[in-house]
Design a protein that fits this description.
The protein is an all-alpha fold. It is 72% helix and 0% strand.
Length: 530
């Protein structure tokens, strides 16, 4: 989501009066509520990343199964983001956000109390549904509660929370895990949600419900998105472990996925107002933005997941140390924040997006040269570059999404862009887990096959290790286990490096799409639509 221009999906709150020239205190309290809610929701996407090894150990999940803890949240957000406009209109903005905050608190407590992977995933799904509503609605509050002259201040506040949330999450989760317990990475939401609800009650006006919106809802699209996105994610997550289509589970889930997407397509034709307006994809420029947003989300969430995993498995970092490394990406984002509105008004969006992606590609390429001796310092340059590139891409892509469609479609355009970004993150996490498993086995057996039993150097080393490990069969067994351990360690590092190579290639593939974009109007201020 853009730092200075993001909009809620599908429409804003109804019944709001024209904002005064200078917003009063209650209006700013409403903006503070929106920013706090978006920060909490964005932070909870990644707050489990650095403490994931600890959580996996306590709830009995493998490293590949652990990706579900992050993926479940993202998939739920993808589904809810396009629905926020409809839910705002039906319930009223304040009531909708109060309900979301209360439920988010309950699901956070459920996650903190989890003792099994199933319980954790259910809690994360609930967090995603309720937390996802808080990110797009923050811009609705800015657009309806602040006059145009003060909206850049509100969007800057909001932008800082959205950019910093994913990089602050691992640090916050790491600190809580090391100093208290991983459970408090979820329990911390209880007091924050209490403050949020007070701000919502004071800062937003009450609006009447419009339950007639239920009759006009795109129920086919809603059901289709849940089935299609949920099925697709499970297929990608579990396909490798289940031997893909040799498994009846994967076959049935593939059928469910196709049925889901067919329902979404039917909703496009039959619903008065489709939950997600796919007709906008006929616009080549907008379709390009969606594809690039997908890749942006893949790298944003993929890198913040892979780095803590590597540091825990290879470098022996604890959760707090891993979080400090991930936080480096937030430094350039914060430094660039005051300059981005000026760049939007003067710079060519196509050039800035291309530059941002190339910087991100360079950052991933730098991180692909890992070794068993690599520590957090090996990621410093990559993280700083990635933060800079992401700042450019998020700002200019979101502005391009809004500018490439008619004003009446700005909300739908933003909903699609935000959903694409989260979908990219969700699918990337699933694919990276699969890629890592496959490449780990590939590198392990390739390295083993390169070790020739009749090589004099190998025989000499085995003989020396046999003496160290004991006389006879026990000594040989110890030597063979030592070889396998070293080979497995090297294979794991090579598999992590392949993750970054894959992200580099993905970025470079989409860079030419900037040629399909139109330049933003010169002198244009960052837009806040709702």
């Amino acid at each position: 989501m853009s730092a200075a221009a993001s909009v809620s999906a599908g429409g804003g709150a109804s019944g709001t009066a024209q904002a005064p020239e200078r917003a009063d205190l209650t209006a700013w309290l409403g903006v503070a509520a929106g920013s706090l809610g978006s920060l909490m929701a964005a932070l909870d996407i990644s707050i489990v990343n650095s403490s994931m090894p600890t959580i996996q150990g306590e709830i009995g999940a493998s490293s590949s199964e652990g990706t579900w803890i992050a993926t479940a949240y993202l998939v739920s957000e993808i589904i809810i983001i396009p629905l926020t406009g409809w839910l705002e209109r039906m319930l009223g903005l304040r009531r909708f956000l109060l309900i979301a905050a209360v439920l988010f608190t309950g699901f956070s407590v459920m996650c903190g109390l989890s003792t099994t992977l199933t319980m954790m995933i259910i809690g994360r799904v609930g967090q995603g549904f309720t937390g996802g509503a808080m990110i797009p609605t923050a811009m609705t509050i800015i657009a309806t509660r602040l006059p145009r002259s003060q909206q850049p201040i509100g969007t800057a506040m909001f932008g800082a929370t959205v950019i910093l949330g994913p990089v602050m999450g691992p640090l916050a989760g790491g600190w809580l895990t090391e100093n208290l317990s991983w459970h408090y990475a979820f329990f911390i939401n209880v007091p924050v949600c209490g403050i949020l609800m007070i701000l919502l009650l004071v800062g937003l006006p009450n609006q009447r419900m419009r339950l007639d919106e239920l009759a006009d809802a795109d129920w086919l699209g809603i059901a289709g998105m849940a089935l299609g996105l949920g099925g697709l994610t499970i297929v990608l997550e579990e396909g490798h472990r289940e031997q893909w289509f040799e498994s009846s589970l994967i076959l049935w889930l593939t059928v469910v996925t196709f049925i889901g997407f067919a329902l979404v397509a039917a909703g496009q034709l039959l619903a008065k107002r489709p939950v997600i307006k796919l007709a906008l994809m006929r616009n080549g420029g907008f379709a390009s933005v969606i594809v690039m947003g997908f890749v942006l989300g893949a790298v944003l969430y993929g890198s913040s997941f892979v780095i803590p995993q590597f540091l825990a498995a290879v470098a022996g970092y604890n959760a707090l140390q891993s979080g400090q490394v991930v936080l480096l990406a937030g430094i350039p984002a914060m430094l660039m924040m005051p300059l981005l509105p000026m760049l939007i008004a003067r710079a060519d969006a196509r050039l800035m997006i291309a530059l941002g992606f190339l910087i991100m590609a360079a950052s991933c390429w730098f991180d692909s040269s890992l070794s068993t001796e690599s520590t957090g310092g090996a990621f410093s340059d990559g993280q700083l570059l990635r933060g800079l590139g992401q700042s450019f891409c998020m700002m200019f892509l979101n502005q391009s999404a809004i500018s490439s469609v008619a004003p009446r479609d700005a909300g739908d355009a933003s909903g699609l862009f935000n959903a694409a970004r989260n979908l990219g993150g969700s699918i990337c996490l699933a694919l990276l887990a699969t890629l890592q498993d496959q490449r780990l086995e590939f590198h392990r057996w390739t390295l083993h096959s390169a070790i020739q039993a009749n090589d004099p150097a190998v025989q000499t080393w085995v003989a020396s290790q046999s003496v160290t490990g004991g006389v006879g069969p026990d000594g040989l067994t110890s030597a063979y286990m030592s070889i396998d351990s070293m080979v497995s360690a090297q294979a794991l590092v090579m598999a992590y490096s392949d993750d970054f190579v894959a992200m580099t290639i993905g970025i470079l593939i989409v860079v030419p799409l900037v040629l399909l974009l139109k330049p933003l109007p010169k002198g244009q201020a960052p837009m806040a639509a709702h």
